[in-house]
User: Fold these one by one.
Assistant:
Number 1:
Amino acid sequence: MTDDLKSRILDILRRMDPPDGGGDVVSRSLVSEIFVADGKAFFSLTVPAAEAQRFEPFCRRIEAEVAKLDGIAKAIVALTAEKSAGSQAPRNSAPPPSPTPRPAGGAGGAGGAPAAPARPGANKPGIPGIERIVAVASGKGGVGKSTTAVNLALGLAALGLRVGILDADVYGPSIPRLLGLKEKPKSAGGRTIVPLEAFGLKAMSMGLMVDEETPMIWRGPMVMSALTQMLREVEWGPLDVLVVDMPPGTGDAQLTMAQQVPLAGAVIVSTPQDLALIDARKGLAMFRKVDVPVLGIVENMSYFVAPDTGRRYDIFGHGGAKAEAERLGVPFLGEVPIEMAIRESSDAGRPVTASEPDGPHAAAYKHIAAKVLQQIEEAAPRSAAPRIVFD
Ligand SMILES: Nc1ncnc2c1ncn2[C@@H]1O[C@H](COP(=O)(O)OP(=O)(O)OP(=O)(O)O)[C@@H](O)[C@H]1O
């Protein structure tokens, strides 16, 4: 069914005359992979930067035509402007990134080596200056996904990497609170945004761009454009890893990320309860469907250690995520106890990996970070992203 819809979409695209008169966009290989889910079609067109404006109305026409197909309720076509070879460096591009430092416990891998040809996401335009993008996701809310994302980012930074964190949870952004960020990011020349910095991380969140009180009602296409902007119009500078805190669930925003961004992989956060695991499985299935490697599962709020006796209590039936990971054939990345210090430090904007770097919780997150890095190397050896320009 999905394949049939994809070929009908391609037929439509073949019949439409693009504004530059250069022949149909399919034959010219300007169309990305087409992703169809829940009656929505997502794909992008890559055009030369100079043509981007002319192609905008064409994209809207494509959306209207594709939405007429039986089985498609809505189409979302993103325009990506690619810099042609030999032209000048883009104004918002970063200097070429330096080789990835080899972490303790890392798998080595292809540091500096050319791209493996069939790398996942290799056909999606990269973000200049960003080596790898890792999504932190969960099938349902409240499992500690954002807390894990922040502490994972800090764990990666502690391993010597240059790390950024992007809060893609446009519905309930929590990174500003977790990192104690209050000021609004500044714009550079009115065109790009300078990310904030906290505990050595570059940070950007939709929550920094709007007042906390502002209700955020985002429709699918708005989510897509907000995310695209936060990825491509923020001056991330050279980063080894950008950690993306995804909104919970498997909706438009996740599909957008998977469709638009060459993700090196996804980390799934789950609590040990069965219900959360069912949701985690859905998240896992979604990333697999869009060919994003699942780097592994983190079990959060895994057990409780009584402060007075030091005795460990598996209050939620600890171990569920580990068994599930084994069953699903994905790595188990580690477990984090339910711990007042983790909650209080998060709520005070001083995440535990930064505020108690030598403590046991920081050690747990650093261990998870090292495993994530090892999995990234195995799933997607480092490669240079294509250069992108927006003008
Ligand atoms: N290991 C832990 N021990 C104790 N409290 C934790 C732990 N992990 C997260 N929390 C707390 O649980 C609450 C939810 O965490 P967080 O906001 O990270 O979850 P989330 O999955 O991102 O939620 P949402 O989807 O609603 O954004 C927060 O108050 C956080 O401090």
Number 2:
Amino acid sequence: MSDNEGRGAPSTEPLSVVNFEDVSFGYGEDRVLESVSFEILQGDFAAIIGPNGGGKTTILKLILGLLIPDEGRIRLFDSPSEEARKRVGYVPQYTLFDPLFPATVEDVVLMGRLGAKSRLGFFRREDRRIAASALKTVGLEGLEKRPFPALSGGQRQRVLIARALASEADLLILDEPTSNVDRTAEKEIYTLLGSLKGEKTILLVSHDTAVVSNLADTILCINRTLARHPGCELTGEDLGKLYGDDMKLVLHDIHNEASAASAKEDSTC
Ligand SMILES: Nc1ncnc2c1ncn2[C@@H]1O[C@H](COP(=O)(O)OP(=O)(O)OP(=O)(O)O)[C@@H](O)[C@H]1O
């Protein structure tokens, strides 16, 4: 699928999905974000990278209207965040899970349909069809009745992505979706995100600079202030500025390992 699919006809201006204008924010006296401006358009795959404490999660909370900026303006789908956040599917970081949590895979995916079910409070056949389709998209069809806690960490993350897809959200936000999964699961998740590119507007927070530079159209490097890069143009110098000079960039391109390796082999900042 091409990058432009999902953005409408070429003559139509792509819609603004997230727009930050000179946003500053602090939890107290200290500023966490300083005059941050960026825009994500419909169909974009944007990624936020940056060091621990750089302000990535704060940006997500501001987008969702859970925090209010001290200065500047935030628009979500050209509306105030509180009005538009139901159009966002949020995939949290992996968290420890109660092994006795009594939900099946289907139950978890159907949570994405909670806003859509019938007035009597039942899921409709259509809700179940959409949930099944979302599970198929993430490659987990057939596991509907499996207890959610019995899945591997990577499978659970894919179920949470299916839940976001089932909500038919217009923007998918994923906060470090591979932070606690093994390498194989990580690769599967990034392959899945690559397959959604162009179909959904995606905002990914990740520490994996190599994957991000291969997947994203736009990379937002945040460390209190913002530097913005088109995808694939992230240089060792950029990363050195962002993370400091000790960082070793680990490469593992999911789509084209050979070309990524030749382009960026052994990049060290
Ligand atoms: N509720 C809070 N109250 C006070 N300070 C906070 C709060 N939440 C975050 N901070 C501080 O704000 C800064 C930015 O935090 P944030 O969670 O946005 O960073 P991050 O880039 O997501 O980090 P990480 O990669 O470690 O998740 C950090 O210094 C953090 O300690």
